[in-house]
Automatic annotation (TrEMBL):
It holds the Pfam family GatB_Yqey. This is Aspartyl/glutamyl-tRNA(Asn/Gln) amidotransferase subunit B. HAMAP family: GatB. The keyword Ligase applies. Belongs to the GatB/GatE family. GatB subfamily. Heterotrimer of A, B and C subunits. The keyword Lipid biosynthesis does not apply. The gene is gatB. It catalyses: L-glutamyl-tRNA(Gln) + L-glutamine + ATP + H2O = L-glutaminyl-tRNA(Gln) + L-glutamate + ADP + phosphate + H(+); L-aspartyl-tRNA(Asn) + L-glutamine + ATP + H2O = L-asparaginyl-tRNA(Asn) + L-glutamate + ADP + phosphate + 2 H(+). It comes from Sphingomonas albertensis. The lineage of its organism: Bacteria, Pseudomonadati, Pseudomonadota, Alphaproteobacteria, Sphingomonadales.
Length: 493
């Protein structure tokens, strides 16, 4: 149970949130035509006769779109309905050539499922919640009106008309901005692992309608509003907070919440009324007469299930079983590209715990600093495994490894080549280290006396001076052992 509350003048209010996420299906074509779906194409260059609703053009379901929806349902352990049906949702708008949208209202392809979220990223096992998913249905997208191309007219771009969408409808189980953000991030991660949606919210391939209501603690559900087409996790969380506060202010002033559709203005961080909310019967749904029901056989379902990859929760559990800390396992599995890169690092022979420490600190830090993503990392998993191997066998100290890594980032060379070319190999030569320590002690006789007089903290000073004198190439473990002997045995008379 979330402890998030809005403190009003009349007491505390709870927030109730449900999300309807529209995820563009990754496929080779649109839902009912062979037209392409590439982002950023010139207006009206990806429009078939079916998409433009030319007379006599009949829709034909795209098998890959259906397959991806089924795989997504399986990934959230949802009920897969072997029998489903397409309906016509009738409304008239300039960007909807048919005058109706083909959707699934009464018999969706995917039934109830659930998504587990964590509310504490630093300690993923500390707090969690299961969010119910009511259904996933498949539908076609509408086109897009362009209001900024002409001073007095609006243009229409039908490139998106007929693009396949999965509408993923949560139950009203979310109770705070934080829970809502965690749910959306987890859903996006699952979709990207499965490969059914690229999750790119900036390009509109994933967007959310945010249903928000408020109630006094323990009361019946209040009237909800729906804020449409929110295209970032941060904005979705802002909508929950701002819309809930607005509703509390209206109710405490004696007003009523109207069930309506609203829009979010990120510049002003507020929601605005768009239109009153129509009920389902206003759309005059009825079965699409041009499409037979979808009937899925066991062989198709078995192929879908067999094609699923290892999903985020299972991968995180596997990493933890390898000795990787829970927080690092969560970071490594949050994005599918990072998880694939790390798996390749393990396959190249890197030790799991050391590899996780290095990846989440050194590699991710360098990528953030240079503005790269892991798919464009100049250091490959095999090269990283070579670097970690040189650290493990004592060839490189921690500080030398950082130097080698920086050169690898700049040049793309392997770790062994950098060590050879730059002469950065760590030395464990006891004789050479003893000679340098003797020089350091001779140059700091007063501090030697102080150390032997009880100032034990000076030991770090001698380590630092030795490492400095040897250009960071001395093996720290050997330096420590030799120093202990030298400072302990060479007692002044």
């Amino acid at each position: 149970m979330s402890d998030y509350r809005i403190q009003g003048e009349t007491g505390e209010w709870e927030v109730v949130v449900g999300l309807e996420v529209h995820a563009q299906v990754t496929s080779n074509a649109k839902l009912f035509s062979g037209a392409a779906t590439a982002f950023g194409a010139e207006p009206n260059t990806q429009v078939s006769l079916v998409d433009a609703a030319m007379p006599g053009m009949l829709p034909v379901p795209n098998r890959e779109c259906i397959r991806q929806a089924v795989r997504t349902g399986m990934a959230i352990e949802a009920q897969i309905n072997k029998w489903s049906r397409f309906d016509r949702k009738n409304y008239f708008y300039a960007d909807l050539p048919q005058g109706y949208q083909i959707s699934q209202l009464y018999h969706p392809i995917v039934g109830e499922g659930a998504i587990d979220i964590s509310l504490d990223e630093k300690n993923p096992d500390a707090a969690g919640k299961r969010i119910g998913v009511e259904r996933i249905h498949v539908e076609q997208d509408a086109g897009k009106l362009m209001h900024d191309q002409h001073p007095t007219q609006s243009y229409v771009d039908l490139n998106r008309s007929g693009v396949a969408l999965m509408e993923i409808v949560s139950k009203p189980d979310l109770a705070s901005p934080a829970e809502t953000g965690a749910y959306l991030r987890k859903l996006r991660s699952i979709l990207r692992y499965v490969g059914s949606c690229d999750g790119n919210m900036e390009e509109g391939s994933m967007r959310a309608d945010v249903n928000v209501s408020v109630r006094k603690v323990g009361d019946e559900l209040g009237t909800r509003t729906e804020t449409k087409n929110v295209n970032s996790v941060r904005f979705v969380m802002a909508v929950v907070e701002q819309e809930a506060r607005r509703q509390v202010e209206v109710l405490e002033a004696g007003g009523k919440i109207v069930q309506e559709t609203r829009l979010y203005d990120p510049d002003r961080n507020e929601t605005r009324s768009m239109r009153s909310k129509e009920d389902a019967h206003d759309y005059r749904y009825f079965p699409d007469p041009d499409l037979l029901p979808l009937v899925l056989d066991d062989a198709f379902l078995a192929e879908c299930r067999a094609s699923l990859p290892e999903l985020p929760d299972a991968k995180r559990a596997r990493y933890e079983a390898l000795g990787i800390a829970p927080y690092q396992a969560t970071v490594l599995t949050a994005e599918v590209e990072a998880a694939r890169w790390f798996d390749a690092l393990l396959d190249a022979g890197a030790k799991p715990a050391a590899a996780a420490n290095w990846t989440t600190s050194e590699l991710f830090g360098a990528l953030n600093r240079t503005g790269r993503d892991i798919e464009n990392s100049p250091v490959s998993p095999a090269q990283a495994a070579e670097l970690l191997g040189l650290i493990a066998d004592g060839t490189l100290s921690g500080s030398l490894a950082k130097q080698v890594f920086e050169v690898m980032l700049e040049t793309g060379d392997g770790a062994a080549k950098v060590v050879e070319d730059r002469g950065l190999k760590q030395t464990s030569d006891t004789g050479a280290i003893e000679a340098v320590i003797a020089e350091v002690m001779a140059a700091n006789a007063d501090k030697v006396a102080d150390y032997r007089g009880g100032k034990d903290k000076l030991f770090g000073f001698f380590v630092g001076q030795t490492m400095k004198a040897m250009g960071g190439k001395a093996n720290p473990a050997v330096v420590n052992e030799v120093l202990k002997t030298a400072l302990g045995d060479s007692v002044a008379p």
